[in-house]
């Protein structure tokens, strides 16, 4: 069986969705690639034992159930970060996504259904992804504001022309932008990349002219 891996000393569990989504960028998959699957499963296994002990069902859960559930979580939610998964266990402890019931088969056989944990994690994921989306929107808006502020600082008009010349080693008093003599160019080649594009444009304008005549 895989040994239990505990949190590093001084680790503080996340207290909110925002905290969980920003506290770490290390995904379960990256932990698996860097430290190996046994290390990852061992850490999740420790979290499950902590959860089952808190809920008072650890004595009726088998070692096999814990191990298989930990392995399933590592595979199914590999794109979660470690703090996102940790906060999921916190919310399950708080009863946010339902209760974990004991299933009594007979007088001597009582256990839990591990599927209840997976169902709770699936519900948690919806709220967690919503928080990720909210944070992405905030970062996008902040980036747009930053770019707009930078654009506003750029000189325009004559001042912009002077800055351009200065950066390119030109004299703004004498430098002129080279004009293009269109009489030396084939207009069709300028407007259309291929002969087929030119023909399609001609047919389009022809149809528009016919409609105007019919009106």
N→C terminal distance: 84 Å
Which structural class do you get from the secondary structure elements? mainly alpha
% residues in beta strands: under 5%
Gyration radius, in Å:
32 Å
Give me the count of strands. Answer: 2
Low-confidence stretches: none
> How many DSSP helices?
9
The main sheet comes to:
2 strands, antiparallel
- SSE order, as H and E? HHHHHEEHHHH
What fraction, in percent, of the residue positions are helical?
55-70%
Write structural notes for this entry.
The chain is mainly alpha-helical. It has a two-stranded antiparallel sheet. Helix 1 (17-23) packs antiparallel against helix 5, helix 2 packs across helix 3 (37-55) and helix 5 (82-93) crosses helix 6 (115-153). It has a domain at 17-147. The protein is elongated, with a radius of gyration of 32 Å. It has helices at 17-23, 28-35, 37-55, 63-76, 82-93, 115-153, 157-167, 187-191, 195-214, and strands spanning 102-106, 109-112.
């Amino acid at each position: 069986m895989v040994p239990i891996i505990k949190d590093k000393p001084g680790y503080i569990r996340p207290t909110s969705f925002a905290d969980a989504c920003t506290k770490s960028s290390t995904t379960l998959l990256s932990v698996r690639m860097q430290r190996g699957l046994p290390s990852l499963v061992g850490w999740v296994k420790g979290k499950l034992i902590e959860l089952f002990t808190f809920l008072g069902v650890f004595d009726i859960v088998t070692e096999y159930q814990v191990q298989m559930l930990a392995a399933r979580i590592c595979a199914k939610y590999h794109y979660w970060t470690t703090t996102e998964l940790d906060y999921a266990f916190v919310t399950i402890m708080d009863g946010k996504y339902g209760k974990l019931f004991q299933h009594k088969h007979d007088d001597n056989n009582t256990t839990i259904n591990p599927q209840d944990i997976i169902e709770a994690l699936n519900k948690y994921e919806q709220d967690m992804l919503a928080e990720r989306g909210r944070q992405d929107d905030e970062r996008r808006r902040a980036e747009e504001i930053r770019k707009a502020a930078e654009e506003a600082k750029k000189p325009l008009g004559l001042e912009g022309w002077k800055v351009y010349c200065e950066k390119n080693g030109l004299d703004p008093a004498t430098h002129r932008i080279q004009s293009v003599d269109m009489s030396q160019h084939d207009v069709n080649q300028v407007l259309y990349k291929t002969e087929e594009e030119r023909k399609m444009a001609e047919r389009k304008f022809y149809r528009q002219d016919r409609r105007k005549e019919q009106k």
